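STRUCTURE:
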């Protein structure tokens, strides 16, 4: 009995001892760990602030303007009514290990080498990424000199990413993707916010502000710039493919072909202006898309311009705005809820607007045979939209361009086909029936354009 009492006592004392140890570990040691983590965060924020301050001072000393384009910081200053400089390190010290700036190439000459050299002397590890200058690439000259594309500047646990933007003939800003090499430094857990792909942005007005007591430049309307980032992916036309195409099928230089290319570009430009003013997203479709993908040019025997539009983006003002811009409505097929299609004429060139409908696993647009009331569907795999430059215009194309082209033209899209039956030739077309007789007057409307 006495022995059992001793065991109970020892057990009780052990429990008390363990409880004291657990309390000590959780409240004393844990507090110290928490203090260490807090101090580390403070140090990292301070390091970021000092890095940004040093970087901007260096750029200013070389008279190179750089623009704050970091999405996290820009988002934090949107809709802030009070002065951005009142509290030190409120906006720039986000705790993020990366801060992104941009520079426009017009202001980025040989001085960049001096800036990189000076930053290296100040304790930064520096990495420069280059790219071929796309503005000098053509079908006739598929190579071009290298130009700076991205600069990474790292000191301790914070990195500054400088994105070099180039002004392109289509009156927009473009940056290259980052081409990682084996010798490139690893950014660890840091994910760069620009450079996974090439990007295209509207030209922006720049204003000077003071953020956290540091003077810098930012987009005049940060929200507009931020909204472009998720949709900025850019695909360059494949000039080597175009060169190979013209080596096999020489470019048509007859007066008729030259005139059509000129007039088709004019129609494309005017159509783009109307749709941009309405805020309607569109992309090059059908033969116009094939011309870009295959030969970086208008197909002269196509005799029209083809654009795609999501039906969800349709604006009821669209027809009136096209008419006010000098276009004549030639026909209206289908209805907004089913197989909608519009065709306009400007001069001697037709502009077809195909409206696309999205299903769970595919996209489609409709076709209507005016003589019979026959209904057709063109099936496409799901696709997203990217930017490209075509005939010095910034314009959209399906990102999954090859899949889109092969759906519409098959595997032999590289070979020119001058005889094309829209009801039979496309591999993705299916006749799905007829319009009801009582609908015909509404779904088949033809207009005299002369």
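SEQUENCE:
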């Amino acid at each position: 009995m006495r022995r059992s009492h001793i065991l109970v006592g020892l057990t009780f004392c052990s429990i008390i001892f363990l409880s004291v140890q657990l309390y000590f570990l959780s409240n004393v040691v844990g507090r110290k760990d928490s203090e260490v983590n807090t101090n580390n965060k403070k140090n990292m924020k301070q390091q970021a602030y000092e890095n940004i301050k040093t970087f901007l001072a260096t750029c200013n000393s070389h008279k190179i303007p750089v623009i704050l384009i970091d999405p996290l910081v820009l988002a934090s200053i949107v809709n802030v009514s009070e002065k951005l400089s009142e509290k030190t390190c409120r906006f720039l010290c986000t705790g993020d290990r990366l801060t992104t700036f941009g520079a426009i190439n017009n202001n980025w000459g040989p001085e960049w080498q001096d800036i990189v050299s000076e930053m290296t002397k100040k304790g930064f590890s520096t990495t420069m990424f280059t790219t071929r200058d796309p503005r000098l690439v053509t079908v006739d000259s598929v190579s071009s000199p290298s130009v700076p594309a991205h600069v990474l500047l790292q000191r301790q646990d914070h990195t500054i990413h400088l994105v070099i933007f180039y002004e392109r003939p289509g009156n927009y800003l473009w940056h290259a993707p980052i081409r990682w090499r084996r010798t490139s430094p690893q950014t660890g857990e840091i994910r760069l916010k620009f450079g996974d792909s090439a990007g295209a942005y509207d030209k922006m007005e720049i204003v000077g502000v003071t953020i956290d007591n540091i003077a810098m430049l930012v987009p005049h309307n940060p929200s507009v710039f931020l909204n472009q980032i998720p949709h900025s992916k850019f695909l360059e036309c494949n000039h080597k493919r175009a060169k190979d195409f013209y080596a096999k099928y020489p470019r048509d230089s007859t007066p008729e072909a030259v005139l059509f290319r000129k007039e088709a570009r004019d129609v494309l430009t005017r159509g783009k202006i109307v749709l941009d003013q309405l805020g309607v997203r569109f992309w090059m479709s059908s033969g116009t898309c094939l011309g870009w993908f295959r030969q970086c040019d208008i197909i002269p025997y196509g005799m029209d311009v083809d654009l795609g539009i999501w039906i969800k983006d349709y604006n009821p003002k669209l027809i009136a705005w096209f008419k006010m811009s000098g276009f004549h409505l030639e026909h209206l097929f289908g209805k907004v809820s089913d197989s909608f299609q519009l065709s306009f004429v400007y001069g001697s060139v037709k502009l077809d607007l195909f409206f696309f409908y999205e299903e769970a696993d595919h996209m489609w647009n409709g076709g209507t045979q005016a003589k019979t009331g026959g209904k057709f569907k063109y099936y496409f795999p799901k696709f997203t939209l990217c930017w490209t430059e075509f005939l010095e215009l910034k314009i959209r194309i399906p990102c999954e361009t090859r899949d889109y082209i092969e759906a519409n033209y098959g595997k032999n899209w590289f070979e020119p086909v001058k005889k094309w039956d829209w009801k039979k030739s496309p591999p993705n077309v299916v006749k799905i029936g007829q319009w009801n007789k009582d609908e015909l007057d509404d779904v088949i409307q033809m207009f005299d354009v002369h």
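REMARK: The longest strand covers residues 158-168.
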